[in-house]
Amino acid sequence: MNLARMLRQRAEAGRPVRVGVIGAGKFSSMFLAQARTTAGLHVLGIADLMPERAREAMKNTGWDLSTQVAKNFSDALATGKTAVTEDASALIKADGLEVVVDITGNPAAATRHVLQAIEHGRHVVNVTIEADVLVGPLLAERAKKAGVVYALAYGDQPALVCEMVDWAEACGFRVVAAGKGTKYLPGYHQSTPETVWTHFGITPERAAAAGMNPQMFNSFVDGTKSAIEMAAISNATGLQAPRDGLAFPPCGHHDLPSVLRPRAEGGVLEQPGLVEVVSSMERDGRPVTNDLRWGVYVVFEAGADDARATYTRDCFRDYAMIRDASGRYAAMYRSHHLVGMELGISIAAAALRKEATGAPSAFRSDVVATAKKPLCAGDTLDGEGGYAVYGKLMRAEDSLARRALPLGLAHGIKLVRPVGAGDSLSWDDVAIEETDVVRLRREMERAFAPKPARKSAAA
Q1: Beta bridge partners of 305
Q2: What is the domain extent for residue 370?
Q3: What CATH number is given to the structural domain containing 20?
Q4: Would residue 107 count as lying in a domain?
């Protein structure tokens, strides 16, 4: 609340929140479309390895390149224009910059940018959620020690879910499940960049003409992006991953409290307090009624069977909440998310309130590389959304016990032994160099490894 007012005050004072954006793809373009009309925001600079792509993004989103592009960062600071560069490091160091937004999609590059931004006292909004799942707890801890904010990006589903979980807990409800919707069938895990467009109902030629990256889009189809987003939510909220990975139950928003409740009460959850993704398709391919394909949700309960819980259940009924048959479980949902168009919320919250729109507080869940097909020694992994592996959600303690290979590192490395279809890869299956990001991952595992549950005296 009040972020718009606070932004207007900064605008009136001549001190807009100055933002640096790294990466000029679709998400960036959606942000630029709104930043242009948001009082109190100044995009100081945009960095992209292909600067012309940044200029094209500005042009396509209504910016006047003849009057709004600065010569350099000093000129941008003095005139309120925007500088374009291929040098992300120079942008991070630019005078006057308050918030750095990484939208590269590359976990190694994003990790470097986040660490450099923290070093220079900038708040960070990390849109590259793959980096958050790979080393996020470590990044958030370093930001906290430096006195700056590290945040997930509002508009992306994880931050929206974090907000809903926070709302429910602040209201005194117990969160039973939270997550998002997507289009899913079990066979999608074998989807490749070659087959992806059939799931979107478009031709490869049309996709190419629109500049759509088949590998990136495939990560949404094959279940990888869902696993990554649920891991981020888990690490930020305290909700756990299902032991067997995401179930993707078919479910419309009217059935959320009935489906996403414990199995003992007729639902699909092994226990309360889980992340889960609901499918917009029945297993036979029929569309789900009232699907939540583009949305997010939270399921919560009134409490135990006592007088206070009974009163709350009555309120659920009186105010026409979406409830299960018992009246104990209720749900709230949001039907859509606006992706980069909502990013300004994270930027304003970080700069004006020093608050994160979601950030990891522990290493609770991981996303591990899992073979789409039989893999042979000598095969090279091609990462998220590729031909070789997809990402599977796993509890952190299980991932560490199995020495599972994080999906964020499964790119450009070779297998040293075969892996069966459907099997999760381990560090021992690959030849991997000790790069900076690999060392950071190992440091994160050591520092944030979940402690084993304490055994009872009877045990």
Answers
A1: none
A2: 365-448
A3: 3.40.50.720
A4: yes
